[in-house]
Structures are given as structure tokens and as C-alpha cells.
Design a protein that fits this description.
The structure is a homotetramer. The first copy, chain A, is built from 5 helices and 5 strands. The longest helix of chain A is centred in the first third of the chain and has 18 residues. The two termini of chain A are 22 Å apart. Strand 2 of chain A pairs antiparallel with strand 2 of chain B. Chains A, B, C, D: This is GlcG protein. Chains A, B, C, D: InterPro entries: GlcG_carb_metab_protein (IPR052517), PduO/GlcC-like (IPR005624), PduO/GlcC-like_sf (IPR038084). Chains A, B, C, D: It holds the Pfam family HbpS-like. Chains A, B, C, D: It comes from Roseibium aggregatum.
């Protein structure tokens, strides 16, 4: 696979929601972006709060911004807060540097896009992203 | 129905895509927003260009902003361009005042949300929104 | 009177709503700002659409911006559109140059604030603002 | 109750102001927003400073953004400052993450809107929001 299609994005989100149901998580919002950071698919489950679309998208953008999952940004926010603050600035406030933004790669290591999930704990959000990406037979990079 | 659910939004977009296939339209992007203007579901078909998510969302926001479909805004853009320019300003550049932003109402006339579609001609975009809303047994207000 | 109080603003909006009921208008949103352009009181009637608070505020700001009611800005939008466009720019997109933004003055001609109304036709919006200001024994300047 | 009406918002603010008078607090500004984050009613008491409308609104938006009162955001600002900074970014600078932003829910736990209060200490601001919501026989979620 060379490009994320809408159909693959549907597979990813369906599997992420299945994982969330299995873990009995709070309502989630999930964004799947292409390699250029543009939305392919976004779903907000009933009861997920109003700014969740921006948070989910911000996690996915954060991962694409630095070329690895947002777990890396979360660690940097503690060790080098000035760097993460600056990223907020240069991105026009577009990134959310906590776990749950996961890169989607193919077998050759090429980045096809990113998944961002929000609604439960950051660790649980990330677990659902990983489950979704695996269901599409693609490779997750959590950072 | 009192609130648009994710499941209803899925019905709307599936029917809009069916209509588009029937009419042999270009790839579309469709946004379904709740009554407060927050995304419930957004789908960008393969080949739909990168700023389509913002355009689709901007049509739906435009309809919610003034309480009727964006066909009304499109007419005002000719008769009162300074009003539509001002709406762009006070909304922070969030509205797209051309047909294809359609309010979703229930039988009692209550606004439940809006659908915004972009990718083909504005008239065709709007026709798909209307088909989607009808498939969910809800009422379309095109403006 | 030297300053608009919250209590006077309440008088203005109540009388504006009474006028609207008398004329059988659509649901309105009304903003009363002080002389510095800061909100004292804002009311959105049930069924008034979601961007009406910004539109009402933008009319009131527009009146304060140029020192007369927005009927003057509306005329200028036709005769000198580049001026009104520029005002949009320098105000950061804050003004709405159509009738319904009315200055509130005292008997000495001092500006105490402005009222902005939106929801029906611009002429009807303005008539309600005038009725509200009269009920507070203050002087309306429509532009 | 399914939707906050202007009349219910009036009840909330009147009771909040009564509580403030009882506690002898400084002049307050109170915003009541609907579930989508759009103003229904905003009142600034005489003597309340000029940016209070934005602060009150920002508290209410903050609560709606994450689906619980801003006391939760205030705690997160200490434990995960990068998350709260990011929320500021993705919201376009719209949130104020200190106590005094309180969700308004009905008996079934559905979010109908939010109240934001500012002017005294954050704890006192919040106490007035809680009193206002109780007076409307609705349920407060402080976070």
C-alpha cells in the first residue's frame, strides 16, 4: 500500500472502536489523516465532548510533525518544554503532544498517515489506535 | 429525534455517496456537524483535494451560523457582499457561502445539525446532501 | 447618566424584545456594549442561530468604531467598499456593517455605548434597538 | 429539560448573583452557553473589568471542551501543563482552565450547556455557578 484510502481508514476506525468497546472505554473521537496531515475520516462517538475533533486531529498532526508517535512528544514536553512550546507556535497551535497520536506506516517503513484518538486516558487512546492500525495490516509507530 | 447520532450521520453520508455515484460526480468530501457546529463525521473520498474538509465544514457552519442553508448566503453574497464579508470576519474565516451547506431538521422544525458537501458543482453537492438527509428521514433546509 | 449600567442595559433589551414581540419578528440576539466596546449584557432568544452573538456584537462594535450607527457603514459599503473592507481588516474582522448597530448617547451627546441586534431584517433589528434605547430615556444614533 | 432556554439561563444568573451578594463578592461576569458552546446569556456587573466576558466564556468553553468542569483542567495544568497548553492552541486560545467553568446537566446526565463565572476567587466564582445551576433544578459538574 502506498496511500491510505478512505476504505482503509474505515477499517482502522472500526477496529479502534471495537477495541474501545472491549476495554469499556469512554466515548472516543478518532481522526485518520493522510501523509500530508489532511483528514480522510473523522468519527466522534455519541457523548464525546465538543473539542475532541481538534484534540484527535492535533495528536495525529503532532505525530506527522515530528515523524514519530506523540509518546515521543509527551516525553519531550517534560525534558524540553521549550521545544514543545515552540512546536505549538510554529504549527499555529495545531499539535497535541500527549500519547494517542500514532503514525501509520507500510512494511517498507513509509509513512502513509496518522491516527489520533482522544476520549479516555492517553494510554487507552493509544492502544485503540494500535489495534486499528493492526487490523488494516499496517505498522504503528507510537513514538 | 432530538440529536444527530454518529449512526444517523453514517446513514446520511452513505446515501450522499450513493447519490454521487448514481450521478457520476467527482470525489466528494462530506461533513456532518451537530447543532453546535461540532463535527460528528467527516469523510473524504479518494482523490478529493486537500482543503475539501475545511470547505465542507465551512458550508455546514455557514448554514448553522444564519439558521438556513447556504443557498441563502450565496444569494446574499451578490445582494449584500459586505454582510457576507463581515460574516467571514466575525466567524474567524469559518464560513463558505455557496450552496451545499444544508440544515438538518426534525419534523418539529428543530435544527439538529448540518451537512456540508464539496467536490462537484455546488448544485450537485447540495443534491447529495438532500439525498443523504432524506435517507435518514429528516428534513433538509437548503436556504 | 454618564455610564451604561447593567440595569439600564436590562431595560434596553427588555424593551427591544417587547417591540419584537409586537412586530412578530423572528428570534433575536441583542448585545449591549459599553463605550469601550466591551459587553455588558447579551441575550439570545430561543431559536436564534448560533453565530448571532458575534453578528449582534459586530454591529455594535461597528457603530462604536466609526462613531455613528451602522446604517452609515451600510451606505459606505456601497459607495466606498474598500473603506469598509479595510475596517474589517484593521478591526480583526470584528465589524458587521449593516443596519442594527445603534449608538447610545445621553442628552449631552456623549456616547455611552452601543446596541447591536440581529435575527430579522436589518431594518426591523434597528427598530427594536431604537425602541430599547428610548425606553431607557437615552438617545439613539442609527447612522 | 432537553435544551437550556434563555429563561432558564436568567434563573441561573439571578441565583448566582444572589449568592455573590450573600457572600459579599466582587463584581462578577457570568456567561451561560448552550451545549455547543454558543452564548445564550452574558451579564457583566457594574465594575467588573473589561476582559471578564472573555474569561467567563473561556471557563464555560473549557468545561464543554473536555466534558467536565474546569476544576479538572486546573488540576491537569499542574500535572500535564503541555496538554493544557495544547488545548489552548487547538481551541484558538478559547479556554480558561481554572475553576469556575461548570457543566450544566439534566437528571439523565446529558450536558445542556455550561456556566462560566469570573470576578472573585476561582473557588467563589465556582460556588456561585453551583448555586445558579441548583436554582434551576439542574445538575452541576465542577470537574
Amino acid at each position: 500500500m502506498r496511500k491510505l484510502t478512505l476504505s482503509t481508514a474505515e477499517t482502522i476506525i472500526s477496529a479502534a472502536f471495537e477495541k474501545a468497546a472491549e476495554l469499556n472505554l469512554k466515548p472516543l473521537t478518532v481522526a485518520v489523516l493522510d501523509a500530508g496531515g489532511h483528514a480522510i475520516l473523522l468519527k466522534r462517538q455519541d457523548g464525546s465532548s465538543i473539542m475532541r475533533p481538534q484534540i484527535a486531529t492535533g495528536k495525529a498532526i503532532g505525530a506527522l510533525a515530528v515523524g514519530t508517535g506523540t509518546r515521543w512528544l509527551n516525553a519531550n514536553a517534560e525534558s524540553r518544554p521549550h521545544f514543545v512550546n515552540a512546536l505549538n507556535g510554529v504549527s499555529g497551535g495545531a499539535i497535541v503532544p500527549v500519547p494517542g497520536g500514532v503514525l501509520v506506516k507500510n512494511d517498507e517503513g513509509e509513512t502513509l498517515g496518522a491516527v489520533g484518538i482522544t476520549g479516555d486516558t492517553s494510554d487507552n487512546d493509544e492502544a485503540c489506535a494500535v489495534a486499528g492500525i493492526a487490523a488494516a495490516s499496517l505498522v504503528a509507530d507510537c513514538g
